[in-house]
């Protein structure tokens, strides 16, 4: 690094200039001798016209300085001789006895000059190399700069974001308020001996505003905000990650009070000893350095580290120990009220048409994160601008919701009649299955317009936010998922690949019911398998299974049984209501999209499937003699029911 500094200073350039001057000087100062014929030169010596003679033996050359300038050649001449005449020449000069004498010289190569001859090209090359290096690293990370955190990796800014820009995350804001106060006035806390957390971990799904919150703390406290992403640490040069961490902390400490924000900390903070290779890999060194730096904070270090992750479960426990990220704040997808306030925040500066109600929009968007909602309003504004309208209408907002959920509508893609017919029945099958189930959320929309990667989709949304799901609701979801495939089977006797995504989703739900939710009698209320996602790069290489082959077979059997049951139920529903299905498909082909009002009319006469018998968690348990307490309709899921989006049939 020091060498680099040295190169950048003025010294190398001064040296280079001196060298050039010296070389030029010695070149021009060499007296100019005019070459003459050997005979002519010899004659000059014999005629006694020579003041000084110098024999350069190595080059067999004689330099003469004449007493009087020669009319033709001037005062200085030189000539070459061949060896046999060397002696003759010496005799002649001795005889002539020039006034200034006779110098016999065996040439010593001029060491300074020859040194320059070697050094000069080297210096030039070095200068050239350096020039290119700096040019190259200007835009990207150059070889000379690795290890040094550069502006593009660590960004420092002074955010203007305020807590009021973060909506629907009141608990997180409250927790972070204390951090802000500490940064503003640490003495208040130090006076009472309070230990402020060195690190705050924000965890939650992507798009819930973690980055926004961290920036808001800096914005509120008016301190610089240093941010880097965990994946930036993981670099191709070994040892770079660790030195980046060192650098980051150094910079922040110099500018304290400050906030350091490490996004995606799971990229470096994974459980140590996990993954391939084991031992001291790059990531581990980076993590260790991070821990060292955090421990190096003393009470007076007015720097707070905020990190964000959506995988808190895979973080190294060392990171979560007291004195490190001991303050952990969950940031979740907002509830309905939260969504409404987020929409209000982002609707600022966007003119809404009369009658647009953000509360209604919030109701329509369960499971949407802050980022999704910001996106919805932006998409709506874009659509509005595209049509040269000046106000954002409900239609624009609805289209924007669809876009955010399933991608933009694809008008360019023309489905052939066969595909349209199949899609109409497939989506009709889903919608009808949902309509005939007693615990399913209402169908709000069905469309056969291709959107994103889906050929069509059916939107089944809860009326309110749900935080838990009942077994019957899950079974209904399975039946709903099977509805599309079963319609194809019943109507065309020939299923398509279009149900692939449905099958995948259904299998996922069924497997969780068996291994996580304890919803089958055969397996019972046991949790099977390590935490999800931990499988390969996680703690153990053995995959996510911590149970025997026999049990594994039983699990597979139960999963299959659940799917089969759902398949049967869907079959039953669609067969009993085949007329409704035909009508629904017909209307879909004609209108392409049906909203909840139209759907309610079509489904008016649907025969609902009978209630399932009481589920017994063990066959020996007696059926209770009292009826269940009726649950109020629509309020409950940890998985928000996703709209059905299926992938295209493989081409
Ligand atoms: P995360 O870091 O959790 O993935 P971000 O903070 O990057 O999410 O959120 C992306 C964008 O979504 C923000 O810039 C903001 O526009 C919007 N957003 C997310 N959550 C909220 C919120 N609670 N209030 C207002 N806007 C939000
Ligand atoms: Mg983020
Ligand atoms: Zn489907």
From TrEMBL:
Its EC number is 3.4.24.-. Residues 618-628 have a biased composition (Basic and acidic residues). The chain crosses the membrane at residues 12-29, 111-132. Its main location: membrane. GO terms for biological process: protein catabolic process; proteolysis. It is a multi-pass membrane protein. Residues 613-651 are annotated as: Disordered. It holds the Pfam family AAA_lid_3. Keywords: ATP-binding, Cell membrane, Hydrolase, Membrane, Metal-binding, Metalloprotease, Nucleotide-binding, Protease, Transmembrane, Transmembrane helix, Zinc. GO terms for cellular component: plasma membrane. InterPro entries: AAA+_ATPase, AAA_lid_3, ATPase_AAA_core, ATPase_AAA_CS, FtsH, P-loop_NTPase, Pept_M41_FtsH_extracell, Peptidase_M41. Zn(2+) binds at residues 426, 430, 502. GO terms for molecular function: ATP binding; ATP hydrolysis activity; ATP-dependent peptidase activity; metalloendopeptidase activity; zinc ion binding. Residues 640-651 have a biased composition (Acidic residues). The keyword Membrane applies. The keyword Magnesium does not apply. It comes from the Bacteria. It is found in: Cell membrane; Membrane. Belongs to the AAA ATPase family. In the central section; belongs to the AAA ATPase family. Acts as a processive, ATP-dependent zinc metallopeptidase for both cytoplasmic and membrane proteins. Plays a role in the quality control of integral membrane proteins. NCBIfam families: FtsH_fam. This is ATP-dependent zinc metalloprotease FtsH. The lineage of its organism: Bacteria, Bacillati, Actinomycetota, Actinomycetes, Micrococcales. The gene is ftsH.
